[in-house]
Amino acid sequence: MSKYYPAQININNKKCVVVGGGNVAWRKVCSLKNAGAKVVVVSPVFCPEMEREEGIELVKQKYDEYYLNGAVIVIASTDDEKVNEKVYHDAVRKGMLVNVVDKPDYCSFIVPSSIVRGDLCITISTGGSSPAFARNIRLHLEKQFGNEYSEFTELLSEMRRKVLGEISDEKIRRGILQRIAEWDMFDFFKEKGASETRNKMLNIISGKHICK
């Protein structure tokens, strides 16, 4: 089985094409849309959820490779294997990333199971060997990573912008960013809340505390 290079792709405002109009295709559409993509869906028929989904372009036609033009990602999720295979070969020939749902041999990328807490995204993959096991791991980890991780990473993002904007010395900057991201800071956040943690981080940034 192929080894995959782990990466997160910026698809904001980029065209992504989903071929297929069923419930599985709809879930793929939602994921792409949530990442900011301009989603185009090509299918002769659409499930009710797809038809109600706002902010996407529905092309009620049989698949033609013409619809792939300009796409950065292509996902095939039809109930016709010949169509799915054609989508794969067309996309590969055009140099596009393509995923045929539940067909690892027809994928240049796979979508890992993921946990999202604000800007924090934890992905789990078995390289396509057992998506079910990856899902079970995700369900296990979801119990350990609550919404406090979302709030803490949002605070870290705020502090990072401040550090990058105010501190020119790279070594000092790196030390501060490392210090405020330590586990003891997260423990303090869970105990004292965002306001007190922000003050503590600001004290570190201003030099009132020694950075490790």
Automatic annotation (TrEMBL):
It comes from the Bacteria. InterPro entries: Met8-like, NAD(P)-bd_dom_sf, SirC_C, Sirohaem_synthase_central, Sirohaem_synthase_N. Pathway: Porphyrin-containing compound metabolism; siroheme biosynthesis; sirohydrochlorin from precorrin-2: step 1/1. GO terms for molecular function: ferrochelatase activity; precorrin-2 dehydrogenase activity. Residues 117-144 form the Siroheme synthase central domain. Gene3D superfamilies: NAD(P)-binding Rossmann-like Domain (3.40.50.720), SirC, precorrin-2 dehydrogenase, C-terminal helical domain-like (1.10.8.610). It is an enzyme of class 1 (oxidoreductase). It holds the Pfam family NAD_binding_7. One of its GO terms (biological process) is siroheme biosynthetic process. Keywords: NAD, Oxidoreductase, Porphyrin biosynthesis. Its EC number is 1.3.1.76. It catalyses: precorrin-2 + NAD(+) = sirohydrochlorin + NADH + 2 H(+). PANTHER family: SIROHEME BIOSYNTHESIS PROTEIN MET8 (PTHR35330:SF1). This is precorrin-2 dehydrogenase. It comes from Kuenenia stuttgartiensis. The lineage of its organism: Bacteria, Pseudomonadati, Planctomycetota, Candidatus Brocadiia, Candidatus Brocadiales.
